[in-house]
Amino acid sequence: MVRRTVPYFFLVLLTLFIILNQVQLDKRMKNKKKLVEELMYFPSGKFISQVACGYDDVLSDFVWLRFIQYYGQEMLTNKEFRYLEHILDILTTLDPRFTVAYTFGALLLVTNVNDPDAGFELLSKGMRANPMKWQLPYMKAFLYYIYLEDYKLAGKFFKIAAHLPNAPDFTRRFAAFVYQRAGSIDISLYLWWELYRATKNPWEQEVAVRSIKQCTIEKIERLIDTYLQDKREFPRTLQVLVKEGFIKNIPLAPDSGEYYINHQKRIVECSTGGYLRRKWKKHL
Fold first, then answer.
1. 3-state secondary structure the chain
2. pLDDT in tens, 237-279
């Protein structure tokens, strides 16, 4: 009985603290400085969780409301968001499964606070607590791609998201796209083929077919560049690349199209159409 009374006592005290704090904050909402001062003295999420006695969700709702109020106040005034990271840490400690707090919070930390390290650390915290949530690595990839232009890391986290349960097909498409931008053609091809086989959406398949052709042609172009540097001549056919050991075999396109060299145009083409990209006049 004593063991149940002690936590209950702390819960009552904590509840009284929240109610009194709520009343005071409501009276002071017109005074932003006082609201910020109150937020600064929030205990850590770990401390609150220890004395919450199982009522973490209730407390996290309270902190979420304060977070929204704080965000609104900052957007209407100087937009400094000085205590944003602190509030988000409390919120995600109280409710580690609150996916939106991680994704929306990280977006704000990167875009509004200009603190990508804090944003990525918040997402890493979320991924540790929710390893099967595709939204978390997806947001990480999005931020790497859009704001840091780090295509390799973006591709890495798009790929992680794409392989998690219930991940939509576009995560695979984005993974392939950014890997292509980063120069990892083989990984891009793998992901595009995976999307082509997995999706039931005809539009997605059509995009995948075009992108597979584009990636394959780009890969063959790079091999021809290497062949030119080594042999100082243009290959007569793509089979020469196979014979000389530059590639194991020449793949078929998803629609059974065959790749070949158009010597008249000095380009690589696909018999069923595709992205025709480069000429090699400079190498001849």
1. CHHHHHHHHHHHHHHHHHHHHHHHHHHHCCCHHHHHHHHHCCCCHHHHHHHCCCCHHHHHHHHHHHHHHHHHHHHHCCCCCCCHHHHHHHHHHHCCCCHHHHHHHHHHHHHCCCCHHHHHHHHHHHHHHCCCCCHHHHHHHHHHHHHHCCHHHHHHHHHHHHCCCCCCHHHHHHHHHHHHHHCCHHHHHHHHHHHHHHCCCHHHHHHHHHHHHHHHHHHHHHHHHHHHHHHCCCCCCHHHHHHCCCCCCCCECCCCCEEEEECCCCEEEECCCCCCCCCCHHHC
2. 999 999 999 999 999 999 999 999 988 888 899 999 866 554 4
